[in-house]
Each structure stands twice: as C-alpha cells, then as structure tokens.
Amino acid sequence: MTERDELVPRRRRDRRGRGMRGPAVQPLAATGHRPPLPRSRREVFDKIMLDVVTDIDARWSEHLGLVEYAVEDAPQLPDDWDSGRVPLSSLVRGSGTTPTRLVVFRRPLEHRAADRADLEAIVLALVVEQVAELLGIEPHDVDPRYPSDLDDD
C-alpha cells in the first residue's frame, strides 16, 4: 500500500454510506431470511420423481416387492437403433435376488414438457403405467391422479 492509498478513501458502490443491503448480503441471524438457492433442472426433476415414487411405493410396496427406482439423463441407444422414438423409461423385471429396476430418462421427458406442471404429469403417468404393468392392473387403479384419457393409447 502506498501513502496515497492511505490518504484517498476507496470508492465503493455504496454511494450513500449505508453499506451493502438486501437479503442476499445480510447475515441470516440479522434478517431471519435466507435467499432461496437456485435449483438445477436435475434437482427439480429428482424432486418430482421422488414425490411420485414415494407416494406410489407407499401404497403398493407390499404388492410390488423390491423395486429400485432410478433417474438417468438419457438412454444409451445402440448404433443400429432405427426407431424414430426415444425411450422414456426402462423396466427390467427382477429375478431371484435381483430387484426389479425402473429407470426414467430425464432429458427426453423434459424435452416433451412445456412447464413444471406438465413435467409432473408426464412423470406421474409414466411411473403409474410402469407400476401398473408390473402389477398387471389398469393404470387408473394404481393412482387416481392418472389421466383417464391416456388409457386409450
């Protein structure tokens, strides 16, 4: 530091001498408020998936047995994949000590959804359809929130 630096006060963005202000710079104890942390797309999707799976698994766990639920970004398709459709999920039935595994692919679902409510509806419909297939019952019997107009597809 030079002598000049000691004599000349530093200029700050604080033009009126009140200091930095707002909930983002105030300590939590002083304001009692913490600004919300930004959520990534992955975190939002994981929360939606967890909410759907927790609700369905709580109702059907004794009929389903051991099921592993997972989220992956996108399916790994073989080079010779010639279908015009991208899979939205994968269901592999368990055998013996291997649990059944239901994998939902995040990116294709996000691509189809217009907003968060639409994404929630798509995830719910997809998980309900897969669980209904495992149980051998109709999707609307698995969860009453399942849209009945999708049964015709």
UniProtKB/TrEMBL annotation:
Keyword flag Protease: yes
Top-level taxonomic group: Bacteria
Region (Disordered): 1-40
A biological process from GO: proteolysis
Annotated keywords: Hydrolase, Protease
SUPFAM superfamilies attached to this UniProt entry: Metalloproteases ('zincins'), catalytic domain (SSF55486)
Keyword match Lipoprotein: no
InterPro entries attached to this UniProt entry: Zincin_1, Zincin_1_sf
GO molecular function, one term: peptidase activity
Basic residues bias locations: 10-19
Protein's recorded name: Putative Zn-dependent protease with MMP-like domain
Organism: Nocardioides kongjuensis
